[in-house]
Amino acid sequence: MEKKKGRVTLPSEENFLTETKELMERWGADAIRDSDGTKLDDSIKQLDAKIYTTYFVARGHNEFAQKHMEECQQLYLMSMFNTAVTETLEIDFMKGYFTEQLKPDYVHDPKKYWEVIDRTTGKVVDIHQWEVNEDKNSILITDAIPWHEYTVSFLVYAIWDPTQMYNHITNNWGDKAHDIPFDVRQPHSNEYMKSYLTQWLQENPDTDVVRFTTLFYHFTLVFNHLGKEKFVDWFGYGASVSVAAMDAFEQEKGYRLRPEDIVDQGYYNTSFRIPTKAFIDYMDFIQKFVAEEAKKLVGIVHESGKEAMMFLGDNWIGTEPYGKYFENIGFDAVVGSVGGGATLRMIADIPHVRYTEGRFLPYFFPDTFYEGNNPVIEANENWLTARRAILRNPVDRIGYGGYLSLAYKFPEFVAYIEKVTDEFRNIYDTIKGIKPYTGIKVAILNSWGKVRTWQTHMVAHALWYKQIYSYLGVLESLSGAAVDVTFISFDDVIRDGVPKDVDVIINAGDAGTAFSGGEKWADEKLITTIRAWIYNGGGFIGIGEPTAYHHQGHYFQLAEALGVDKELGFSLSTDKYFTTALEKHFISTDSTSFDFGEGMKNIYSLSEDTEIIEYSNGEIHLSSHDFGKGRGVYIAGLPYSEENTRLLMRALFYAAHKEGEFLKWHASNVYCEVHAYPLIQKMAIVNNSLNEQTTLVYDGQGNSQKVTLAPSEIQWRDFSNES
């Protein structure tokens, strides 16, 4: 059979023509791209492939930037906390920051644009009580209150792009020039970005796809005095701030932002913070501006006859592909980094583009491709987790990035990616555009709703953190499961109620976070709407500290529906009699052991009506409770694993009172899954592990058969809708 080709993007570099042609053939690549730090020479550009060229809008133009340093991008930063021991306190506000990246803004009056805050009282210190020493980068407070803590919120210029800085350090680029980021809100920069793009397009006739690796504003990434990451928030809007933006915001929204609206006590409005009205307004303001300006650039690209692609990373802030302005930009495509199933779906589900592309791991950088390391291990894990999601909704293309010459030195890796690309094309050609069978409609409920589709509990994209893996696992499990997933906000529910087609709501997160909801649960409309919905037959799954807000005798505001609450110490005088776990339960049928991640302590049952499913070490970790016609299920945490995916699926069907439908298109072995596509009468039986697996496979009519699968194998079977 002739080898299929296409839908794969290959990174390349100068003086690597012969090897590029070889890997194009082996991997079936039909597009070639450059990467940060590489260039394509003319011979490679003449190959029979689409040419993607990385394009930086607001960095990589130092000749211009150095002439307009007053138009550098800016950030609001907060100093460390400083305790006053006398009435005089000097604060070195740049302490802990990297001076090669950041430079204090003394061009604009600090008395107007900075704030000194007494963090003990929360009050702003009068501007007449402090002075700036520009030579020392310090502020002297003259009427401090002893034993109060103080911080300075100050403006800086960003004089080194953080992505280039990271790549510079990782790859030891030595004397290579530091990219200076400039702000396209400024007049000279705004004109330059358009005129240079027009010129660049004329000078690069071989480019087919302009890959906007950056647009205007980088996610918040600030380095410390050691040149290491100090603060990184993939959703951070900090680098979109400027004096010009603050002034324009006031004119558009009718009120003035404070520096505190940006620095947010040093939390910088991470996506874990319940967003304030000011920050929501600011996000909207930036998104609108970015969409308007990006649309102009896309128009220029289209006039030249080329495609415009956006990289969902680096300077993506303001684009928000699930936001209300993204459609207006007119991008042809979006490409993003795939860390697993959740990030694959984050890219694949993006609306309003002609195609999507996933950049798979590992990146071809020396931190992975070095002697003694085996990059196949990371590639294998990356592919198997992403493949589950691809079988639900595939991206249109896959690719890799970095130095191809590094990857070429690892023959086993090259051979493995050859298999991956073949398998991807086979999946895509079989199911693209075909809706898979789904047994449940799930709504993820948090402060962000649709705008953070497939993006909850992420910090630096898909990296592991101790505080999040017990929750991010929920998304990872759902990304490749036979369920429809939607994302709704508390405000959506308050305004419109629960969507009629939703079977189960999931509220997962630590108390006080945007994902659990905090004080939102004191809203009468929210709590009564969801209570009534559950009572009338809805399913509710709470994970971690769901609906948590201490109010009127409850910590979990849906405690009566969940059947459990959390002991804060206030009700220790009330005996907790109900601790006996059931011997068996529908939810735990396939569980041989339990992993609740970081778990949760002091969860107790409200009555004997609560079905305690797992109780150990004096703690309830898994339970269920009938509430009217509906059900509430409590889970202490859910890291991603095959067993936990199965447990979550069983919990969903149980909460929705659909236990009788659970075995429809089902694999008994937790390491295997069945994806059915009724429209084309095909099903994929998948082994998600690296070991041979045997499983009973149930079809849509209740029939079963035993199937054995080789390690990570997919078997395709035809079926009849009438059988």
UniProtKB/TrEMBL annotation:
GO terms for molecular function: 1,3-beta-galactosyl-N-acetylhexosamine phosphorylase activity. Residues 441-659 form the Lacto-N-biose phosphorylase central domain. The keyword Glycosyltransferase applies. Residues 6-438 form the Lacto-N-biose phosphorylase-like N-terminal TIM barrel domain. Its EC number is 2.4.1.211. Pfam families: Lact_bio_phlase (PF09508), LBP_C (PF17386), LBP_M (PF17385). It is an enzyme of class 2 (transferase). This is 1,3-beta-galactosyl-N-acetylhexosamine phosphorylase.
